Amino acid sequence: MGLLFTLLLTLVFGAVVWAASPRWQVPESLSVNQDRISLADLLPDVPRDVLPAQLAETFIAQSPEPGRSRSLPGALLRKQFAAAGVPQVVVPAHVTVERPGWPVDLEMGRQAVVAYIRERAPWPADRYRIDFLREPTPVMINAGPVTVRVLQGPKKQLAGTHTYVVEYRQEGRREVRGSFNVRVHIEAAIQVAARAMPRGTVLAETDLVSKQVDLASIRGVPETDPAKIVGARLAHPLQEGQLITVDCCEPIPIVRRGDAVVLVARREGLVVSAFGVAREDGAVGEMISIENVSSKQLVHGRVENANTVAVSF
Questions:
Q1: Are 193 and 238 in contact (CB under 8 A)?
Q2: CA angle, 6 as apex, 5 and 9 as ends, to 5°?
Q3: Whether 119 and 160 share a structural domain
Q4: If you average pLDDT over residues 45-73, what whole number do you get?
Q5: In a domain, 60, yes or no
Q6: Would you place residue 6 in the very low, low, confident or very high pLDDT band (cuts 50, 70, 90)?
Q7: Could you tell me if residue 223 is inside a domain?
Q8: Residue 278, CB-side half-sphere exposure with 13 Å CA sphere
Q9: Is residue 251 very low, low, confident or very high in pLDDT (cuts 50, 70, 90)?
Q10: By C-alpha distance, which of 176, 173, 177 is closest to 163?
């Protein structure tokens, strides 16, 4: 009799406890906005303040990329809920998790590229034209404020066709990068060879002819200022009418091999000098080898002028 009474009480109170326990249900499909999915995210219809705290702290999977979805097996989710102490949750066989996405605004990328060019262009804005030749394929990102900046552009000159890498960021975090292929047209006077000239020719004004062209149509970095190349030496031969670029010319050495020079070392206000002999030619700013007359040691220094080479110590 006592055993039957105990069994009856167990069944009654067990039923009461089960009835009092919440019977939450995971929908077959739901959406998330964050990077990771927690057990609490699987119960969107239940107020967060009602859910046990451990559900929000239990992350079960990585969220899909914005604009995509992924399927989670129900058997795995039931085990996760049971491990979190909430076994009575009803879970379907599969749960589809979607993440809303919005396409990146390519116009923001274009504006960033144009601003980048405007800040660095050496010409007035009304003298050049910017054409966008190729743009990145739009991708999806999270909803919310976006900032855009140019990560990479041309290193030497803006004219011509170049690739600009643009980065889209949200909340200080990189979301996506894209590449814009852009051509900048600018009419400018360039310098071409007035005659055929061999390597080593020292350029004079009569060796140059000015020609008006669209810089986007030529290769290399042209020299537009004749004053910068008159007196320079050709690094390789040129044919008549050939474009003179920055790489065509090299500075004329002002220190020659065998010249006597003064070696100067400076540090924190202290200046030490010695006599030396140049062991190779060098123009202003170039590094050359010099032999110290006193020690007979070979050192390297930077040419400052025809008589002085700066060395470090």
A1: yes
A2: 85
A3: yes
A4: 91
A5: yes
A6: low
A7: yes
A8: 27
A9: confident
A10: 177
pTM of the model: 0.59
pLDDT digits (tens, 9 = 90+) for 85-105: 999 999 999 999 999 888 889
Collapsing DSSP to helix, strand or coil, 170 comes out as strand
DSSP per-residue string spanning 89-122: -B--SEEEEE---EE--HHHHHHHHHHHHHHH-S
Query: What pLDDT, in 10s, does the model give residues 15-27?
Result: 444 444 457 999 9
Residue 59 CA to residue 115 CA, distance in Å, equals 42
Residue 243, beta-bridge partner list = 192
Q: Which residue has the tokens 């990146």?
A: 104
CA distance 147 to 9: 65
Q: Is residue 7 part of a domain?
A: no
The string of pLDDT tens digits covering residues 170-217 is 887 777 899 999 999 998 888 999 999 999 898 899 999 998 888 888
| Integer Cα distance of 244 and 233 in angstroms | 12
Looking at residue 305, the DSSP 8-state letter turns out to be S
Q: What is the DSSP string of 6-72?
A: HHHHHHHHHHHHHHHS---B--SEEE--SSEEETGGG-TTS-TTTS-HHHHH-EEEEPPPTT-EEEE
| Burial bucket for residue 125 (CB in 10 Å: 0-12, 13-18, 19+) | exposed
Name the residue range of residue 213's domain.
Answer: 187-250
**Shared-domain flag, residues 150 and 172:** yes
Residue with the bigger pLDDT between 251 and 14: it is: 251
Q: What is the CATH number of the domain that holds 200?
A: 3.90.1210.10
Neighbours of 264 (CB within 10 A): 17
Q: Which pLDDT value is given to residue 38?
A: 94
Whether 94 maps to a domain, the answer reads yes
CATH code of the domain covering residue 121: 3.10.129
